[in-house]
Structure formats: structure tokens, C-alpha cells
Amino acid sequence: MEPDHIRFGGGVTETVLHPLVAVWMLIAIILMFALPRKKAITPFLLAFFTISVGQVVLLANIHFTALRILIIAGVIRVAIARFSSAQRLFTGKFNAIDKAVVLWTLSALIVVSLQWMDSQALVKNLGDFLDALGGYIVVRFFISDDDAIRRTVKALAMACAIQGACMLNERITQVNVFGFLGGIPVTVTVRDGAIRAQGVMGCIYAGVFAGCVFPLFLWLWKEGSSRYVAAAGIMGALAIVITSNSSTSYMALGGSLIGLCFWPLRKNMRLVRWIFAFSLIGLHMFMNGPVWSLIARVDLTGSSSSYHRYYLVDNLIRHFGDWWLLGYKNYDDWGWDMWDTCNQFVDVALKGGLSTLVCYIAIFSCSFGLIGRARKRISGERSQEWYLWCLGSTLFANVVASFGINYMAQLLMTLFPLLACISVAGSEARIAVVRKKAKQARVPMVPSLATTDLPFQEAR
Known about the structure:
By secondary structure, this protein is mostly helical. Helix content is 65%, strand content 3%. The strands form two sheets. The protein has a two-stranded antiparallel sheet.
């Protein structure tokens, strides 16, 4: 049976905001307004990944999480910049990734609202819309150049180092220190006798966050300018993945490592994709069950609910007629625990229908396409290619992780900065090519005396 108010209409009945959290949130907001644009991303991300979603301000019976307040403050900063200066809001043009994100969030808002036709559902949907589109606009604005990208990766590394240390302590002492601030439990979660450290995000969410951003820390390390921060991020990410004790966490890290391992084949990825596609078709034809039943065999910890994740995908495919137009709100009737849509693609489809699912997939398609085109433009510049490859590996890890968890606010804030970094990297690669061509086409202003025949040479 689905828990009461799992979708909307529930929540705390009074404000839950610890004084320390309130002070930290206010400091972050002040810094977001006081610092230059490219530096403001650091306090925003650090606050976002060190404050739990359980910290809530109740205002007029509407829940404003601390994370949502941070997003609102960021949107205000963007609005001020839009009307007070002539600077571009987004680096480069409004590209295909931006369009896909906007269409995805708008489609989800419209379809879910039509599906429920309920005032409480509308309020909940508007909050989700603000978290998604507002959060994307904020990070897209703050991440404006290569320097901002480095600051973004450093902020993620520091967040991983903090959470990794706290989750390691939680594994040892069986006490979640973040729980003393309220909003999340102090006690640890135990499954089949194994402790699953929660941290500030929860065991699976924290593990996915750490596993996905791992390639960015390797890039930061190889760049050489911030190796101490990179090392702290790497160790923190590994600590989070291990202490979370979740198959999805290991899958996210595995996706990152697999993506990095394809680096030698970076110029032959079209062939790799075709081989992968035909392999899936072949498996589907010769296996006893459908190819997506392979999900049921993924168990990296000995206590995974992998069959549940397979059953979600199987039900989604078999009940296509129920959800394709306006989603489907009675999916919990499909079987035991079907209310737990721990698959981002399934969650998007059931709540937003086919149009929303297509827009969501288009985000990844456009992002991979932009990375591929940018890599071809700067082909031969090994350090830049590696930088783009690490971005692509992080994106691939998000795709892998999406099959094991639905993305809440903090995981979306793992994906959105990545999309912004990809947009900036693609724009910078395009500009670099234009400059290179202009430099090659430049004609010398003074001709060489050694190679030019002058009139007085003939007279002599």
C-alpha cells in the first residue's frame, strides 16, 4: 500500500529550521548576492549539498524547503542581473540543452496538473517546477566560463569531502550528525544486517551524487592547479559510495569508470554505440525473458531490490496505453510496492506522459551530441579532449544511475551544473576554433624583404 500523502498533501505541520542551518543559509544567500557572478556558484552549491531537504519553512500552509529558498534567492539574483546590466544571462546562445530542459519542466507541470485537477496537486507541481527550472536557470547563470566551471567542481569536491567524513563517522558510531539539526533521523538505517549511512541526502541519493561526480575530480586532479581539493573530493566520494552500501551507488560509480575507460575509443564511439544497440537486440531475441529483465540480476550488495526495478520497467512497457497521453496516477495498483518509482525514466513517464519522457531523454541526447561536436572541434588538444570526456563520463553515470533512483531536488542539482558546464565547454570550444581559423587566415602586414622582389633590385 502506498504511504499516505507520498505525492502531495502531506509534510510537516510546522517550521523545521535549526538556527545553525538558518544562519548558514543566510550566509550563503548573502554571498550569492555579494560575490561576482562566477564566484557565487560556490556558496550556492556548498549550502545546497550540506542542508537536508527536511529543513522546511512553513508559510501560509505552503512548504518552502531551505533548498527552495536558496533557489528563489538565486532566481532573484538572475532577475536583478537581467534588468540592471547588458550581460548575457547564459554563456553562448540559448542552446538545444536549454530548450530541452525548459520543455521538460513545462510539459511536466502541464501534464501532471491536468492529470490530477486538484489544487493541492497544483501547489506541489508549482513547487517542483520552481525547483527544476529555477534551479537550472540559477546554475546556468552562475556557470559562465571556464573559471566558474573549476569553482563548480571544487565546490562539489568540498561537499563530497564534508559528507564523506560525516558518513564515515556515521558508519563507525552509528549516529548521523546531520540528524541533530532536524529534518532527518539521527539513527542509522540497517538492511539485512548492513549499515547504510545516510548523511544529509539519504544513502542512495548521496551515493549516486558521489558516484556521478567522480570523473570531475579526476579531471581537476590531472589539471594540477587544485590537487588537494581534488584529492579530498576523490576520497570523500569513495567514502560516500562505500558507506551508503547501495547497488545504485556502485552502479553510478561504475558508470563513471566505464565512461572513462572508453577514452582510447573516443574517435570510434559511433561504432561502439551500434555494437551496444545490436547486442541488446540480440540478447532480447535469444534470452528467455525481455532484455530489460537483466536489471533484476543487478545486486552488488546482496540486499538490492533489483527485481522491483525490473518490475517497474516491465509494467511501464506493458501498460503503455495507460500513461502515454497524460501519465497515470494509479500505477500503485500495478503490483506490490509499485508506488515506489525508483527509476527516473519510469517516474518521468508515469507523472508526465510520453511528451515529458521524450523531452527528458532529449536533455541527454543534446548533451552527448554537444560534447561529441566539441571534442571533434578541438581534436588533437589532448587536455581539452580529456576535460570534455570527463564531462561525458559524468553524464553517462547519471544515465546509469537513473535506472536505480528517481531524482529529487539535490540530485537534480547534481545534473544541472553538469549541463551548464557542458553548454559552456561547447561554447568555448566553438570560440576557440573560430579564433584558430582567424589566426591562420591572418595576412602579414609587412612583406618579407627576403622573398619579395623590389623595384630597385632590377635597377641594380
